[in-house]
Amino acid sequence: MALFDYRSEKFTHDRFTGAAVENCTFLDCDFSGSDLTETRFIDCQFYDHESQIGCNFSHATLKDASFRTCDLTMNNLRNINALGIEIRECRAQGADFRGASFMNRISSRSWFCSAYIIKNNLSYTNFSKVILEKCELWENRWNGANVLGATFCGSDLSGGEFSSFDWQTANFTQCDLTNSALGELDVRSTNLEGAKLDADQVSELMGRLGIIVVN
Length: 215
Hints:
Blueprint lengths: L4 E3 L12 E3 L2 E3 L12 E3 L4 E2 L4 E2 L11 E3 L16 E4 L14 E5 L2 E4 L1 E4 L80 H9 L8
Parallel strand pairs: 1-3, 2-4, 4-7, 7-8, 8-11
Antiparallel strand pairs: 5-6, 9-10
């Protein structure tokens, strides 16, 4: 399915289930509640630059779905079921992921998460209270993102960019932060237990405390 333009459409539950959708434009469209399991979106536009309005995916099922080189700017992704989702090389500035679930719950005390959110512009996105444990989240721009109450424990956040970012508001224990621009990270107020840092990062962070690291 390719080269279609949709504007202000409300899609039926199974309109795109499992489909491969390429080079399509969706302007102010409503995917809310849709089953997009294993659907692949490639080079698609979900943002209207004139009206500055994104699309609505709230409560959609996006298990094992894929977005590659798409524009998800300002999209509503609240309360999606997104276990195994892939978002790769996309623009997603200002997208809202509050309530999104990347989790497979086995029991009340046992679960695992799965997501591949890689090489995206996530500036000013809202991941408040989202759980993304042990996920592939590398080489993203997180500038100004809201991560209040979020959990990234054990995830790969390497190669990221974190300016205007509040490290104190989320859980980054056990994370791989190597090769990342860490912005204003203060090791005195952020729990980095088990986190991976490279030598240059350690030297920079210690330098802010007046400690000189000698190689």
